[in-house]
Known about the structure:
By secondary structure, the protein is an alpha/beta fold. It folds into two domains: 3-227, Metallo-dependent phosphatases (Purple Acid Phosphatase, chain A, domain 2, 4-Layer Sandwich), CATH 3.60.21.10; 233-343, Rossmann fold. 28% of the residues lie in helices and 26% in strands. It has ten helices and 18 strands. It has helices at residues 16-31, 47-52, 54-60, 122-128, 165-168, 245-256, 278-289, 305-308, 311-318, 325-343, and strands at 3-6, 36-39, 67-70, 90-92, 99-103, 106-111, 134-140, 142-143, 162-163, 175-179, 186-189, 195-198, 214-219, 222-227, 232-240, 264-274, 295-299, 302-303. Strands 4-3-2-1-13-14 form a six-stranded mixed β-sheet, covered by helices on one side. β5 (99-103) and β6 (106-111) form a beta hairpin. α6 runs parallel beside α7 (278-289). The longest helix has 19 residues, at 325-343.
Amino acid sequence: MKIMHTADVHLSSHHPRRLEALKKVIQLGKDEHIDLLLVAGDLFDDDHQAQLLRGEVRGLFSDLPFQVVAIPGNHDQQAFTEESFFGTEFKALTTKPLAIEDFPDWRLVAVPYGEGSFVSLSEDLRQAVALDKKNILMLHCSWSLPFHNDEDYGGEDLRYLPVTEATLTGLGYDYILAGHFHSSYRQRILPCKAVFVYPGSPVSITSREQGRRGVNIIDEKGCKQVLLDSWYYQDMEYILRVTNTDATLDQLERELASHPDEYCTLTVRIKGYSQENETSLQARIQQILGHRVNTHLELLFRSAGEISADPLYQRIRQHVQGPNSEEMDDMLLDAFSQIHAEDR
């Protein structure tokens, strides 16, 4: 059995790129010959959007070569009523505190949206494990780690259903497939060997979701991220030092190729100092960018002449003597340009 896992699509009539991303997910599912697509919460931005977009989604989730199973998240907790039809291959698991869906050789245990403690679910989750199958736990939760902040969860102040390594370890599941973490793909192997995965949003919901988006695929070899050609944000920053202008522009040109203009909102920020004329340098950068229309350019570089006027630079330079003084002067300019750039 081959499974694809996504979450936090946040479909909205105000943001058509999210619907386009869902179409890319479905097409990738066909290309990868999956058997099951799991949506770990927040398929819709809110319950109202679920009603507005039901017709379009119904068409996407009908007559597919695979099944689609979703759980409500904190944004679409009331979206999946018994009267609502989202497609012939679509099923929402809404039974609380948990729902069980069996497949050949696999069992899916799903935890729909709720505001209770995860610890209170532990015994029920252990009891739900099928000993003769591979077991998946699907939930919409916040991993309680200090280096995850509210922005990683879409900027929400509420950390919904906090979980920790201790509360997840030993439940008996092979895979714990989660949603609610927008930022990026995260995979963590628990001490009990269970694999915990956040797939990240398959499309940038805000500019906080940086970089290529993807989904999680599970097969007999384990879990892996597969990238999508969906819309995303990317910030690229370069610091010019007096001696590295050409090398930096070469790097910019190479890295631009990794971010196609047709599905990337790109911000290129260039700081630092160059000995090249500012006007001619700007023209070179514009030529590298070519006809990109979704790229915002922030040119924050300055002339190296400003460093030469720095009193500290002048005092140090007075002590640079000897046969290698020209090389030492270049090194001194290079160091000052980096320090000044980082201070700005």
